[in-house]
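Re: export button greyed out
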Amino acid sequence: MEMKQPFESVVAQHGVTVLRVCRARLSIADADDAWSETFLAALRAYPELPETANVEAWLVTIARHKVIDIRRAAERAPLPVAAVPEGTTGLGMPGTGDTVGDDALWAAVGRLPAKQRRALTLRYLAGMSYREVAAALGGTAEAARRAAADGRKRLRDYYQDARSGAGSEKGKGR
Amino acid sequence: MNDDTPGGIAADALPTPIDPVDLSALHDRLETGAQAEGLLDIAYTIVDSPVGRLLLAASPRGLLRVAYEREGHDLVLDSLTAVSPRILRAPKRLDEAARELEAYFGGTRKAFDLRLDLSLSHGFRRLVQQHLPQIGYGTTLSYGQVARLVGNSKAVRAVGTACATNPLPVVIPCHRVLRSDGTLGGYVGGAEAKATLLRLEAAA
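Workaround output, generated via the alternate export path:
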């Protein structure tokens, strides 16, 4: 019968990996908290863990959740830190109110049908060939080319509309 | 930002150096946290002694296991997962046991005053092991005499088995049980260790 190993062996084998996962996204002090909470949670659940489970993957999953918890808590109570932790941003996302630049253009991009917007994004922002765009979005390279062409045309129309309709909104960009 | 990127573990495990001191401090913190939250089912430590390195393991109820190095400390820890896999190296719970053992090996302590958890032994073996502390420091009994002590004079062989499977050698003095012809008999820590303990007790 395969016996579960003592938890001490789990700590010895995976402690470093879990610390790296925590330190990759948190300050050292917060990473220590995340490590401790990860192994305490793991110790609590360990008797129920199936013996066939991948222990490292299990620990890394717990650690990632702890990292997210700690980062969320930090966002609710901002503190000055030496190094700014990584976070998500709405920067450059049309319609999030966090865009920089030409608001009218972003409003126009936001109105595009999803397929055309994606095709344009991959073609012009990611610099993919139409063949690659097709591989990413599904369909043929020719369909991707058509979606991008239609998107460009529609974007031009929307942009003109937006500029003439909401001219006073212009000039907010940097 | 790359929370969604595939490649999980390897992508996370950046080759940054990890100071062993940091890990040791984190382990200390885990021991304290586990104890505080009632998750430390079995704490253990390893101590030096004149009969080699001894593994000491304790549940919240008391000292659960003393193991000689020749038993294989890793094997013993593996076997303790049958009680609970929540096993951590956490010397603090063993402080008192370690102190009393040190005094015993120093010749200044003649009896142990520790809470014991006998859940690793059952039935007749457990009965025998519970009686063994009645054999006083520096004295010995034969297997047959112990059989009579527990009220089953025919169970000489079973007494031998009970001694051989004593989960708490040294603390429960199975080393004070000899063959009726006066020769040492077997011992979980080896004949050498048995002789060392008897010499120690004879000298003190």
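Chain A has a mean pLDDT of 81. The button fix ships in the next patch.
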